[in-house]
Design goal:
This protein is mainly α and 439 residues long. It has a single domain, classed as Glycosyltransferase. It has 18 helices and seven strands. It has a three-stranded antiparallel β-sheet with strand order 3-6-7. Strands 1-2 form a two-stranded antiparallel ribbon. A two-stranded antiparallel ribbon has the order 4-5. β4 and β5 form a beta hairpin. The longest helix has 24 residues. The structure holds alpha-D-glucopyranose. Alpha-D-glucopyranose (GLC) binds next to α2. Alpha-D-glucopyranose binds next to α2.
Amino acid sequence: MDDKRLLEKAKEILLKNRRKGYTLPSAHIYPFQWKWDSGFIALGYSHFNVDLAMQEMRMLFSAQWANGFVPHIIFHASTEAKSYFPDAKFYGASLSEDANPNFETTTITQPPIEGWVLERIYNAGHDLPEVVKFVKELFPKILAQHEYLYKFRDPHNEGLVYIQHNWESGTDNSPVWDEIWKSFDAPSYDFNRKDTKHVQESQRPHQREYDYYLYLIDLFKELKYCDQDIADKSPFLVQDPLFNSMLIASNNSLARLAEFAGYPEDIIRLKHWNNKSIRALNDKLFDEEAGVYRHYDLRRKKWLDGLTSSGFAPLFAGAPSPEMLKKMLATLERFSKNGQFYLCPSFDPEDSNFESQRYWRGPVWLNMNWLIYEGLKVYGLKDWAKRMKEDSLQLVRDQGFYEYFEPDKENSKMLEKAYGGEDFSWTASLIIDLLNDNL
Ligand code: GLC
């Protein structure tokens, strides 16, 4: 498929997955609106229909809670949505006094990319009055999300926020969580899995892992979704380099937009947050020896085992110093097995827990590639960025707009299609963004 056709196909996918005011990540397997997916999706729309980009973001923030929290799924009614589990009833959001009474949502969040996306929408349409109005409207909502995170998710006031659940990381079944699951027992839940009806079992999390995922939500319910109690009692409390890097990058975008959006007084606060967050990210999460950032387990006070593609996300935040950057590039090269693998596997390919097909335990994900690509550009590393872009385009050209991809170049030649959900919205969106970037 040539680039022109690739671009057309990507737009078709987005429009096909679009419902009333929001877009499904992939029609069969993910039948609602997901938070960080909507950020990536809005970015794609901003290249050809800024109105759709604004609608996507507006819908997401209309489900925001009173305390600034933004939930990771909005359970819009749709024909595809029947019998999805865990559903709104299981989450029981109304147990929290902050929940939004107008929408059925989950009670956990996802990485805060929206500030960064807002800046891109602004860049795409700053000469249009409706875009100007939109930026002024969204700015305080996104800021309120950041305030929520710093206020309720940073118990030691370090400048690093924690995630409460593996689904909050966006990297659901990463091997880094395995040791947390080993640290407590979870009952087994009896429910009918729908994901494996659409995607091969070998490409999805194991059934037993869902017990831990669900048990955490049950525990939060017991604690009535009080963040303080969760911080005191939950076995899962992690400072994730990806989540924190997106927060920093979004702070930066808001600081650049503040004057224009009519909130110049917020610049000082945004800069203060970022100075502190970048320092903490570098001091606490960077592993000199491994040459990459790590996940920190606040409960057990140690790094979690294993290296992930999330560990490269601080490039996107412009956090690493030149010395750190040099080490990270060597690690990135190692992740590519000196070119035998496409960049960037989601998990260290030399680790015994690496699995090339199983979701976040090894496959390449386009959103992580895009993030690292943007990060490499921050440092002016054109050749590296080109390589990241070319690997991403090649995978989609050869194997279609899937959710995730086989990293091993030899093995991937034998595949007719990639892995996970098909016609995947953020894959389409980010291909649109990459193709529009003349690097
Ligand atoms: C999976 C991914 C998550 C994404 C969701 C919808 O759960 O791990 O990051 O947001 O699917 O695409």
